Amino acid sequence: MTTTKTRPALARRLLRRPSAVIAVAWLVTLTAASLGAPLIAAHGPLDQDLTQVLALPSAAHPLGTDSLGRDLLSRLLYGGQPALLAVAEALAVHLVVGAGLGLVAGYLGGWVDHLTTRIGDLLFALPAIVIVLVVLSVFPGNLHAAMVTFGVLGSPSMIRVLRSRTLGIRQEMYVAAARVSGLSDAQILRRHVLPRLTSTVIVQAALFSGVAVIIQAGLGFLGLGAQPPAPSWGGLVADASQVIDRDPWMLVPAGVPLVLTVIALMALGDAIRDTAVENWSVSKLAASGPVAPPPVAEEMAEETAGTSRAPDPDALLSVRDLTVEIGGVPVVQGVSFDVMPGETLGVVGESGCGKSVTALGVLGLVPGGGRVVRGRVVFDGVDLVGSPEGLARVRGSGIAYVSQDPMVGLDPTFTVMAQLAEAVRRHLGTTREQARERVLELLAMVGVPDPPSVARRHPHQLSGGLAQRVLIALALAGRPRLLIADEPTTALDVSVQKEILTLLHTLQRRTGIAVLIVTHDWGVVATLCHRSLVMYAGQVVEQADVEPMFVRPLHPYTAGLLAANPHQAVSGHPLVTIPGAVPPPRDWPVGCRFAARCPHAADDCRAAPVALVQPEQARLTRCLHFEELVDEGVRR
Amino acid sequence: MSALRLVVRRLLASTPLLFLTSALTFVLVSLVPGDPARTIAGQHSTAEQYQLIRDRLGLDQPLPVQYWNWLTQAFHGDLGSSLFSGEAVTSILSNRLPVSLSLILASTVVSGLAGVALGLLSARRGGVLMRLVDGLATLGLAAPPFWLALLVIEVFAVTLRWFPVTGYVPLEENPGGWAGSLVLPVTSIALGAVAIIAKQTRDSVLDTMNKDFIRVMQANGFSPRSILYRHILRNAALPIVTVLGVLMVSLLGAVVFVETVFAMPGIASLTQQATIQHDIPVIQGAVLYITVFVIVVNLAVDLAYVRLDPRVRTS
């Protein structure tokens, strides 16, 4: 429906790209000049001037002359006519066969699709140029037959792309709706499918045309196209090759226009694709306009809030004022916390609050090209921020990491044994044999049944739960003192989740390892953690021992999260949720970031950044009105 | 064991391709207006001589029978003989095969090694090098191979006089000369191909770098060298191998031109000559050889997949 409107817009936006403008200008000029060659060229393509043999460019011959004194510019322009015709022929066939079959295969599916795909694969495996040569041996000098053949042989790429696009569109809702409303297949194709495929087809067509230009010139070069003395682009290159030792200049007018034409076609294809993608993403993201720098709340009086500025010397890990930016936008701001030896700290919050970024920031591995811009991460007395050596020493042997989705956490191309043994050897410096033994011990330690058999497997042969155990074993290979687990159970089945939690619990009791666990599941916090940290919109909003936090939350966000805990849901009552959503980093307000969703929010909340305060021993909250929560809790 | 099964299955699956190309060639060739018997017999032959040749070539039989005969002979290693030299097609092709194979294999090895190195470098450095690789890839795709070959000749043979302009020295005759005679043709081909491999390498290395398991390895202290060369490269290798396979097949096109430009007696230039001369048995033989080559390359790619990706091995 909107497609007819966006198409002229697409063309207009396309012309805002310099590369597209230059490409179009070149192609239009070339086409016009070739078609108008008799009007433009000062000399006939066959006019010989034996006094001007192999001349360099001059006013009379802008591109010079060849070995018979013929004007190269006019031979180039006249040669453009058969070249353009040949490309047009190949392109027409390519479009009819490739686009037609792709569309039909994608739309109809079933055996038609199957057959088309098979034929496409077969055609794709054929060396096109050789088949074209065979055709030319049957139809000597018939460039039309050659280009038609080439159009067919080049169709598999078009078939593949269009087939998958059409398949995608067909499955969309409104096409299904159009079907139900009784439109015929032809009508649906014309009205709903074809308009959306236009840019895809043009992109493919542009790329194919580029190849066709080279092929037709190549055939001319081999003497299989237009016969001398008739001018052709390939023939020009062949002429140039005859005089290469005497007149290398001729290579330039013979080849450069050819190369430029192909580049122009490729650039045009790229530009159309990029414009179409841009079109899609702009409408998808809703015109947001230029992004204003996000309001960065000035952190105040952090010292008064209990966590002193200085790292805690007794802590195993002491994070102070950690600030992480991704693409210049702060996503985690001024986060401070400690993890004591043997302690389990839970980091809780909804998706997009910066929990995972905080965890990875500790290891100096912020995803998406982000980096730690401020703060200190002191592990075992060493500040890791800005210290690649410190990080290299600590990773694996001091701090280990378990990722969220175990199915993609292991290298799919190596066996479990190979990966674990590599970790063991790296950290413990053992022999190959000792490493293998240690791997089996580790696997037994994380409760893997039949370690030797599992060790021989590749990751894709493991179940999710087994893969997570292997990942935990990998993390333990370097005998770390702190384990950072980023939602280690989220991707698993509920029954397996319990097993993994039990495993972590057992391991912790047995080895005394400290754990920093990122989760949005209060069940995990209740089972494993001593203390927990609640994060909202890149900041710590509350920190407390687990029991007091469950019983008496001092931040409305914590209270909301606890109320929304599905474990506490009473059957028959609707699940409680916090209205609204976490604002993205660029939309963070100046004042309290939770104010927009908070039932207690007042004007003072929105006025200025809210600092963390310490209402009682070992508790922190970033709320101006926590007393109201306390009163409410008492009333409840 | 599973690799063997794959080979067998693949070979069975490629049989249609062999039949398709040979039957296609056969049908096309039957459309040729000329009469091969007349060509062979020459102008001064008697009617009996002419008819004898027609009988020998089986030209009076229906097309499917002719095709069947050709097939059965082909199975026995007999592809007929050239209409011009009278030499057996198999022996012509066997003489020519090493030339084209040297050219294609050397070009693949050179552009593969250089392309992967350049791609890795540009993935790690980014910036200018990355744009250079992109630009080179565009140029490599856009510049016709025959024109690139002429440029290479102009620079290295005519101006600098470092290498011979044309010709081919067989490997068994003089290994040094063989390598020397390959330098310029391979350079002409690789100039275009290197950037294509480099671009693919960079894209798949960057793609692999963002995988979860790489972060897990980094976080757990695997050595950066091992992460890059053992894990990233191996995972990135799959798409690179695919592109290398496609490249090897598409190099056939470039080889047609490069053999012509450098006057190398390979299969591709033979096909081109036979095309001009309408030497049908030679064309049929060449198409058969080339199809077999394509099948072997695809098989090699599949085997590389099996070697590299355990998921293919067990599925």
From TrEMBL, chain A:
Q: Which PANTHER family match?
A: DIPEPTIDE TRANSPORT ATP-BINDING PROTEIN DPPD (PTHR43297:SF2), OLIGOPEPTIDE TRANSPORT ATP-BINDING PROTEIN APPD (PTHR43297)
Q: Which InterPro entries match?
A: AAA+_ATPase, ABC_Ni/Peptide_Import, ABC_transporter-like_ATP-bd, MetI-like, MetI-like_sf, Oligopep_ABC_C, OppC_N, P-loop_NTPase
Instruction: Name it.
Output: Dipeptide/oligopeptide/nickel ABC transporter ATP-binding protein
Q: How does it sit in the membrane?
A: Multi-pass membrane protein; Peripheral membrane protein
Main localization (coarse): membrane
Superkingdom of this protein's organism: Bacteria
Give TM segment ranges: 83-110, 122-139, 145-162, 201-224
What GO CC terms are in its UniProt record?
plasma membrane
Domain ABC transmembrane type-1 positions? 80-269
Q: Which UniProt keywords apply?
A: ATP-binding, Cell membrane, Membrane, Nucleotide-binding, Transmembrane, Transmembrane helix, Transport
Organism from which the protein derives: Streptosporangium carneum
TrEMBL record, chain B:
Q: Where is the ABC transmembrane type-1 domain?
A: 97-305
A GO BP entry is:
transmembrane transport
Q: Which residues form the signal peptide?
A: none
**Where located?**
Cell membrane
The principal location of this protein is membrane
Membrane spanning segments where?
A: 101-123, 135-158, 178-198, 236-262, 282-306
Give the highest taxon in the source lineage.
Bacteria
Q: Which UniProt keywords apply?
A: Cell membrane, Membrane, Transmembrane, Transmembrane helix, Transport
Database matches in Pfam families: BPD_transp_1, BPD_transp_1_N
PROSITE patterns tied to this protein: ABC_TM1
GO CC terms: plasma membrane
Q: How does it sit in the membrane?
A: Multi-pass membrane protein
The family this protein is said to belong to:
Belongs to the binding-protein-dependent transport system permease family.
Protein known as? ABC transporter permease
